[in-house]
Design goal:
8-stranded mixed beta sheet, alpha+beta
């Protein structure tokens, strides 16, 4: 097995100064090969760790923020107030990048920790890589079309997009919402409690959770290997008693939200010739999809889909593929959505399973994800591919995913 797939030591909360120092040391060793960070705030982080109140709930937990302005985000402020220590800002697409599926770090182009010849996804590219490679246990992100869920899926970590409008966002279109990336859903749930200032223990979600699986939402062109990996993960969750699929109804579908998302993002103006029809059509698609989703969640609490229709593409770009085709519907509708690791394609690319629940039900979504990661998801192990074996020996490894044990548990 190549160095790129060997496990690294876990990030274990310890005394604040030690925890931050260990995170900075991992960044120093691994980031030159992965290019996950724009800036590393070593001296400031050590000073903050030395001053943090050890009684705070997240005292000394190192975390990264998305992009050069991430430190000013609401989520970052809440994490700092709970004692967490920001150690750096993570890579986002560089200037002139018209597609948002890789980042540009201080050392160069951000690479996927499982396949250096592939993109990590984006635009929260560096945040996903920093978490996957064990440099930090948590990173902030933002998601306007899948920008948290896509890199989470392609880097084999947990990624959550919160309900639109739940947390402050600078996006005037209302499409983007704050998100978190963590090694596990259990970690994300602990952090999100402090970001949302909601410390009450919610009643556990009864299992199995009724669910609907939509392989393509009625319009996406899904890679057969991605579809097979996700379907196998769904079947394992059902066999483990985490979900119960509703097979009595016709397959759940939505109208393709592509042009609707573009119209909202571009600010289609009904008073400009040629844009009126687009604006009307965008509103009609949005209203119809909202109606279908409201009807679904009135009877079933969970919708499952692949997180992306495709596996990670190369650094030359996605071509004609829309990696967002299964994610941006829920930016338009505003529902919370998460990606959890589902397994790997035969060539060693991570695949994500998307979980969607009713608006405002982040706690339910996280509880379901935690139950999923505790299930015996056999067969979700990364193979040692020829491309992986050819990876540079200095390439750091991602942490082993709790969703994909190397052998089946009893």
């Amino acid at each position: 097995m190549s160095a790129a797939l060997e496990p690294v030591e876990p990030v274990v909360p310890v005394e604040p100064v030690v925890s931050v120092a260990e995170s900075l040391a991992r960044i120093g060793r691994r980031d030159p090969a992965l290019h996950a960070f724009l800036d590393v705030w070593g001296e400031e982080a050590r000073e903050r760790a030395a001053r943090v109140d050890p009684e705070l709930p997240l005292a000394g937990t190192p975390f990264a923020v998305k992009g050069p302005t991430g430190i000013r985000s609401y989520a970052a402020g809440r994490l700092i107030a709970a004692g967490a220590v920001p150690v750096g800002s993570t890579a986002v697409p560089g200037p002139g990048t018209y597609w948002q599926t890789w980042g540009q770090g201080r050392h160069g182009r951000t690479v996927n920790p499982y396949r250096a010849d592939r993109t990590p996804g984006g635009s929260s590219a560096g945040s996903a890589v920093a978490v996957a490679a064990g440099m930090v246990p948590l990173a902030t992100g933002s998601d306007g079309a899948g920008s948290v869920r896509i890199p989470a899926a392609w880097c084999g970590v947990f990624g959550l997009k919160t309900t639109n409008g739940l947390l402050p966002s600078p996006d005037r279109t209302g499409l983007a919402s704050a998100g978190l990336l963590a090694r596990t859903a259990a970690q994300a749930r602990r952090y999100l409690r402090w970001v949302l200032d909601d410390h009450a223990e919610a009643a556990p979600v009864p299992l199995p959770v009724p669910a609907v699986y939509a392989a393509d939402l009625g319009f996406a062109d899904v890679d057969p290997q991605v579809a097979a990996v996700v379907r196998a993960a769904v079947d394992r969750l059902e066999a483990a008693g985490v979900i119960r699929l509703d097979r009595r109804r016709r397959p759940f579908t939505l109208l393709d939200p592509c042009e609707t998302w573009k119209a909202i993002r571009g600010g289609a103006r009904p008073d400009v010739q040629g844009e009126q029809a687009a604006a009307v059509r965008a509103a009609e698609v949005r209203a119809e999809n909202d109606r279908r989703l409201d009807s679904l969640f009135a009877r079933t609490p969970l919708l499952l889909t692949p997180a992306t229709p495709n596996r990670p593409h190369g650094h030359e770009g996605p071509g004609e593929l829309y990696s967002t085709s299964l994610t941006w519907a829920f930016n338009v509708s505003g529902h919370p959505a998460a990606s959890i690791p589902a397994g790997f394609t035969a060539d060693g690319c991570p695949v994500g399973l998307q979980l969607v629940t009713e608006r405002g039900t982040e706690a339910v979504l996280l509880d379901i994800a935690v139950a999923a990661e505790a299930a015996p998801l056999c067969g979700a192990t990364a193979p040692a591919t020829a491309a992986a074996r050819a990876a540079p020996a200095t390439a750091p490894a991602p942490n082993p995913s709790p969703y994909g044990p190397r052998r089946c548990r009893p």
